[in-house]
Specification:
Pfam families: UQCC2_CBP6
GO biological process, one term: mitochondrial respiratory chain complex III assembly
Protein name: Cytochrome B pre-mRNA-processing protein 6
GO molecular function, one term: ribosome binding
Helix content: 55-70%
Largest sheet: none
Number of domains: 2
Radius of gyration: 20 Å
Length: 113
């Protein structure tokens, strides 16, 4: 097994640890990347530096490096004019509220401004 194959297999196994997307999309990041790297397994001329950079980037995503580096302040998360705005959206994304709650909330906001 070559060095590039080993790195690709590590990347694919790391992709397996990603959680399922909570929002339905046209394409899942996890699935697209797994397919991409599975195709790279067939290519014997894959640049090892490229693969190391890809693995490093995936490790940064998995460790939430940028979430910690660029933390969102409380002032930004809870704006003074509507402190529950993002909480309502997050609850809907995680499935804790009715599916149309975001739109009903937006309609309510429009009526009360």
């Amino acid at each position: 097994m070559s060095g590039s194959t080993t790195i690709i297999r590590r990347i694919i196994s790391a992709l397996e640890t990603l959680p399922k997307d909570s929002l339905k999309r046209y394409a899942s990041f996890k699935d697209v990347q797994k397919e991409r790297f599975t195709e790279l397994l067939k290519d014997t001329n894959t640049d090892i530096t490229f693969l190391h950079n890809q693995q490093k980037s995936l490790d940064n995503i998995l460790s939430n490096k940028y979430k910690q580096k660029f933390a969102v302040s409380e002032k930004l998360r809870h704006p003074t004019n509507n402190p529950d705005y993002y909480e309502v959206i997050l609850k809907e994304i995680h499935g804790n509220q009715k599916k149309n709650s975001f739109f009903s909330y937006m309609n309510w906001m429009r009526k009360h401004k």
